[in-house]
Specification:
The protein is α/β, with parallel strands linked by helices. It has 2 domains: 127 residues, 3-Layer(aba) Sandwich (Rossmann fold), CATH 3.40.50; 58 residues, no CATH class. Helices cover 26% and strands 26% of the residues. The strands form 2 sheets. Strands 5-6-7-3-8 form a 5-stranded parallel sheet, with helices on both faces. Strands 2-1-4 form a 3-stranded antiparallel sheet, covered by helices on one side. Helix 2 runs parallel beside helix 3. It is globular, with a radius of gyration of 17 Å.
Length: 202
């Protein structure tokens, strides 16, 4: 795995005519993880997109070292293809890193089109793809949604293993997430006091 580093400095995010949060600085080293909490609309998903480089900050900066993998409600799998073929497409791009299909309960679903998978099955398929990336930085957006208790415990264990191997994880979730020395980031602490858009961000 590549060396993992992730940091922000005075980060601010705007969506439409609102600044969702500002002044957010963090620094994560290999083996560290952060649980981002907050109500719907506070900007959790937007923060992950900024960290992934998929959106530009309104202010501030993001620095990343190592490949980044994002798991969200869009599994990036062809909905018309059987699961095995959809994952095989990415394995040809990402390499042959093990995606642990049996452990994720997917080994018997490889012939099923992705569009027929349940919410939990699609989430586990997205985790299989993330494991196959061998990304150093994991960005997980509501990773436990749609999972039963056993699958949720498996995801928490996989994040722990990722950290032990030197990876970084940022988990945005309104649900509790188990993990040793898991940092907490209440995103509402960085919200503006009103919905107005300032001329600049201090």
């Amino acid at each position: 795995m590549q060396e993992a580093r992730l940091s922000t400095r005075d980060l601010a995010c705007r969506r439409g005519d609102r600044v969702l949060f500002r002044g957010l600085s963090l620094a994560l080293k290999p083996g560290e993880a952060l649980h981002v909490t907050g109500a719907n609309g506070v900007g959790k998903s937007s923060l992950l997109r900024l960290l992934a480089g998929l959106a530009r900050p309104f202010a501030g900066s993001v620095e990343r070292t190592g490949m980044v993998g994002l798991l969200d409600e869009r599994p990036a799998l062809d909905p018309e293809a059987p699961l095995g073929r959809a994952l095989g497409f990415w394995s040809r791009i990402d390499g042959d890193a093990p995606c642990r299909l049996a452990e994720l309960g997917l080994a018997d679903l490889l012939d099923v089109p992705v569009r027929y998978l349940s919410t939990g099955q699609r989430k586990r398929a997205a985790m299989a793809r993330l494991l196959g990336q061998s990304a150093a930085v994991w960005l997980l957006d509501e990773p436990l949604n749609g999972l039963d208790r056993d699958a949720a415990a498996l995801f928490e264990r996989l994040v722990g293993e990722h950290r032990k191997s030197g990876g970084i994880a940022v988990i945005a979730s309104h649900q509790p997430f188990a993990g040793e020395r898991l940092g907490q980031l209440p995103l509402s602490d960085y919200a503006l006091p009103d919905d107005s858009l300032p001329d600049h961000v201090a």
